[in-house]
Amino acid sequence: MGVPAFYRWLAEKYPLVIVDVLEEEPVEIDGVKIPVDTSKPNPNNLEYDNLYLDMNGIIHPCFHPEDRPSPTTFAEVFECMFDYIDRLFVMVRPRKLLYMAIDGVAPRAKMNQQRSRRFRAAKDAADAAAEEERLREEFEREGRKLPPKENSQVFDSNVITPGTEFMAVLSVALQYYIHLRLNYDPGWKNVKVILSDANVPGEGEHKIMSYIRLQRNLPGYDPNTRHCLYGLDADLIMLALATHEVHFSILREQTVKERQREKRESLMKKFLNIWTLREYLEFEMQIPNLPFQIDFERIVDDFIFMCFFVGNDFLPHMPTLEIREGAINLLLAVYKKELRVLGGYLTDACQPNLSRVEHFIQAVGSYEDKIFQKRARLHQRQAERIKREKAGAKRGDDVEPHFQPEALVPVARFHGSRLASAPTPSPYQNGTESSKFDGNRSSRPPKFARSSSSATVGAAIVEAEENLEIDEGGNKEELKARLKEVLREKSDVFNSKNQEEDKIKLGEPGWKERYYEEKFSAKTPEEREEIRRDVVLRYTEGLCWVMRYYYEGVCSWQWFYPYHYAPFASDLKDLGQLNISFDLGSPFKPFNQLLGVFPAASAHALPVRYRELMTDPNSPIIDFYPTDFEVDMNGKRYAWQGIAKLPFIDESRLLAEVEKVEHTLTEEEAKRNSVMFDMLFVLSSHPLSESIYLLDNHCKQLSDKERIEVKERIKPELRATCSDGMNGYISPCAGDTHPPIFRSPVEGLEDILDNGVICAIYRLPDPHKHITRPPPGVIMPKKMVNLGDLKPAPVLWHEDSGRRPWESDRQNPPGSISGRHLGEASQRLIANSLQLKANGNGYRNHANTRPSSYAAAHGSPHASHSNGLMYNGHHGMMRPMTDSSHRGYNQSLNSAIPSYHSQFYGQPHDEAVISPSYSRSHLPYERDSQSSRYHPYERDIQSSRSHSAFERDSQSSGRQHARNAFHSPDLRPGYPHGPVSRAPSGATSHGAYDFYQGHVSSGPVSHPGTHRQWHGGYPPASNQSSFGGYRPPLARGDSGFIHHQARGNGFAPLHQQPPHGANRRPPPPQSGYGRNGRK
C-alpha cells in the first residue's frame, strides 16, 4: 500500500491518532557520553510491554543513511543498525519482550512485487551509471578533477534478500548485538529477545503478527499487554487493527512532507495509536436505522477489507480508486449508505461475504464514469500547464535564476544515495547548514589561502594536495547534484519528447473495451468477456487470500495473481457464484526465491552454478531474466510509477533446473539455503533461563539435529512470571547454549569475555482460531476523541468542482505563502488595520480587554486559534489571544481541548479543531470530565518533572492555551536549550559467521587479538560513538508549533455561504455537547 498516501490520508482525517515521540538523549560529562538509562520510566509517560521491530525498515535506511556518510562495508551498515535499534529502544523501553523480525522467504503473491522492484532497481542503477559516466566525461573535458570511484560491499541493495551472504552475516551480527545489550544495558536485564532472521520463512511484519495472534486468549496471556511495532509500511496499521488488540501503537518516521513542513533536518518519530484510531472509526461508523445490531469489531474488519481496494502488496492497483482522489472517503460513504441494504457485514473475521462484497463494489463502480472524466480533465490541465512552464523557461534561458533549485543543492540527503561513489561528510561534521542555500555563496567548499613565501616546500606541497582534494570534493558534490537532477528530469513523462499516446482514454465512450484490448490483448467481445471473467476470479481470489493472510497467516505459499493489471470496480460481478479455495503448499528455499526475484545484474549474490542459470545465454530459464523490458506508464507521470511487464516465473521449470545444481552447494551455502527457527535470548538471571538450562542438560547426549527436534512447552499458567505470560515451545539450540566468550563478528567492536546470556530455539504456540475482538479482561482506555474532533464528511472527489480548493483538502501550490508565514502576515495586516501597538508577542495584552459592562462568562462560540489569534465567531473578526500560561507539554493546537472561559460570552463551547495535519504530542493522557484536565493512563508514570513544569493554572482563565512564545526557543518552559547532543551508538554484533541458530562454533576465532573486557557495567568504548547526527524528537511544547495555513472546510459554518440577506453569525451552541461530556 502506498505509504505516504494512506498515512497522509489518515493523519489528515484523524489527526489525534498521531503523536510526537519524546526522545531522551545521552548526556556528556567531561567529554564522555553517558548512555540513556533505559531502566528508568519512559519519558512519554506510557510503559510498553513488547516492542516489535520490522527489521527491513531499519536495514534499508542504514544502507542509505541521512546522518552519516554512505557505508562502504557491511561492518559500517551493522554499526548504523545498532545505533538505530538503540535509539528505538530508548524511545519505547519495552519491559517484557523485544522481537526482531527480518524478512524471510515471502509467499509467491509477494514475490511478484519483489521481482518487479528489484528489476526496476537494477535498470535504474544501470541508467544512473551510464548517466554518471557521461557527466564524468563532461567534467574531465572541462578540466574539473573528480575523485575515483571507490569499491564498496554495499553497492547493490538487492542483497537485502533472504539467502545472500549479507543476510547470513547480518544474523550473526544481530546475535552479537543482543548479547552485548543483555550483558551490559540495565534496561535490557529483564527483557526476552526473539530474533527471527532471514532463514525463517515469512515477511517480517507477518511473523510478528503471527506471534501476537497466537499468544492471545491463551493461559497466562495478559489482555492489557501494551504493544509497540516499528516499521515503515502503511499495512502495519491494518495489521495492528486486525489483531483487535486495543493497547497498540505503531512507531514510525514522519513523512518527508511533514519534515519539510516542520522544517526539521532529520526525521523525527511519531506514535500512531491504534486505540485512538478505533475511537475515530467508532464515531465515523455510527450508522442509524440499521436492521441489525451494530457490532463495532465487525465494522473494523470491514474497514480493513475495504482498504484492500485502494492498494496492497499482492494485487495490482484497481484503476477506479486512487487514495489521492479521495478513494477511501468514497468507500466509507458508499459503505455507510449501503450497509442497511446489505443486511449484514462484508466480512466475518477472515471470510468475505462475496455476495455482499459484489453489491458494495458495484455501488462504488457506479461512480467510475465521473471519476475517469474528472481525472482526464485534470491530467489535460496539468499537461498544458507544464507545457506553458517549459515554454516560459526556454524564453528565459539567458536570465540567471534568482535562486538555485533545491534539487541542485548538494544537501545531506545525497550522502546516502546509491549514486554516491564515495563517503561524504555530513552537515554535522562539516559544520554547515546544507538545508539552506545562500545565493551569495558558492556551493563549492572554500579554498584555503595561499601560504606566504616563507613557507617550506613541503608545506606548499601539502597545501596543494589539500586544495586539490577540496576541488575534487566540491566537484563530486556538484556531480551528484547534477546527476540527481538529470535522473529526476528523465523520469518525468512530461519531459519526454515522445510521450506515449493514451489509447484507452478513460472516461470517453468505449473506455472499458479499449482497456481490455490494450492491457489484456482481447480483440473480440467474446475474448473480452472470457478474460474479464478470469481476471475477476483471480482478483477475487486475491482479496480472499489477503484477508486470510492478515487474520490467519499464509493460506497458500504458491498462489499469486497472474496478471499485470486489475479489473474495474464495475467488473466485479457474479462473485457469489465463485468457489474460492487454497492449498497451503510450502515456501521456496532462499536460493530458489533469489532466482525468482533477482535480475541478472544481482546474480553475484548467488552461488556460481545458480548464477549461470541467470546469465548463461544457453540457460533453459534465461527468458526469466530480461535485461530490457517494457515499462507501461499506465497514465502515471513518473517512471517509478509505471508497471514493469516482466514474465511471470514458471515454478515447475525453475525447480526442475534448481534440482540439477543444488548438490554443488558448499556446507556454508547449504546453511544459507535452509529453513531455520526463531532464536530466544535471555539473561542467565531471567526466570525463564532455568527451564532452558534444564532442557539443555537433558539433551546433552543428542546430536545437533536431534536436539532441535526436541521441544518443551512453556507453561505460563503454572509459572506466569517465568515467561511473562508468553506461550510457545523451546528447544535447545545447536552448539553451546551459553558460550562463556562471545567473539565480535564486526571489525572494531570488542569481544564479550564474560557472557551471561543463554540461547534457545523458540517455536510459536499451536495454531488456533483468531478471535476478532478484544480479549476478556481488557481495560479500555478512556476516550480521547469527541464529536467535536471529527471532520465533517468531505465532498467526494469526483463531485468537487474545484472552484473552492480549500473544500477539497488540497495542498497549497509550491511557492505560495502558507502556514506560519501566512499567520504572521495576517497578524501584521490586522494589527496595522486596528492600529494596535505591538509588544514582543505582536500585540498588546490589553488590546481586547473586556469592558466592565460585559458579564464574566465561559467560552467563546466557535473559537479557534491561528498563530496567536482567536477567531471571534460572533463579531466576525480576529482578536489576539489573552496572555495565558501554557496548558501542558502534551497538548498541541489540534488536540481535543476542553472549553475555556472568555470575557465575552456566556456559553461554554468546544474549540474548533485547528489544522488537522498537526499532531498532538503524548496522547497517553486521558480527559477527566470533571476537571477538564488530562491525566495519564493508570499504568503510566504519574510524576514527571518536564510535565509538571508545563502544568500551571491560570487565574485569569480556566482555559489554558499555547501562546506565541512557543515560536521562540528562549521562551519555551521546562526544557534546556542549546546544541543538540548526540545519542550513543548502538553496540555491535554477534558471533563469528558460523554462529547459526545461536551457537558458537568451536573453530578458530575469526578476529584474533587481545580484547579489553568492559568494567563497571559500561559497554566498550568503541561502541559509544554518537548517533551521528540523529535529531531527537522533542516534546511538542519544546519543539514549538509550526503553523500551517488552515485549509477551510466546505461543511464548516464559517465557510458555508448563507442566502442573501441571511444572518452570517454562527448559530448558537447546543447544550449538552462539549469537551467534557457527550449528549
Automatic annotation (TrEMBL):
Domain Xrn1 N-terminal: 1-254
Keyword annotations of the record: Exonuclease, Hydrolase, mRNA processing, Nuclease, Nucleus, rRNA processing, Transcription, Transcription regulation, Transcription termination
InterPro entries reported in the protein's UniProt record: 5_3_exoribonuclease (IPR027073), Xrn1_helical (IPR041412), Xrn1_N (IPR004859), Xrn2/3/4 (IPR017151)
GO BP terms: DNA-templated transcription termination; mRNA processing; nuclear-transcribed mRNA catabolic process; rRNA processing
Bias type Basic and acidic residues, positions: 799-810, 923-954
Family, per entry: Belongs to the 5'-3' exonuclease family. XRN2/RAT1 subfamily.
The protein's role, per its UniProt record: Possesses 5'->3' exoribonuclease activity. Acts as an endogenous post-transcriptional gene silencing (PTGS) suppressor. Possesses 5'->3' exoribonuclease activity. Required for the processing of nuclear mRNA and rRNA precursors. May promote the termination of transcription by RNA polymerase II. Essential for vegetative cell growth and chromosome segregation.
Full protein name: 5'-3' exoribonuclease
Biological source species: Turnera subulata
Name of the gene: XRN3_1
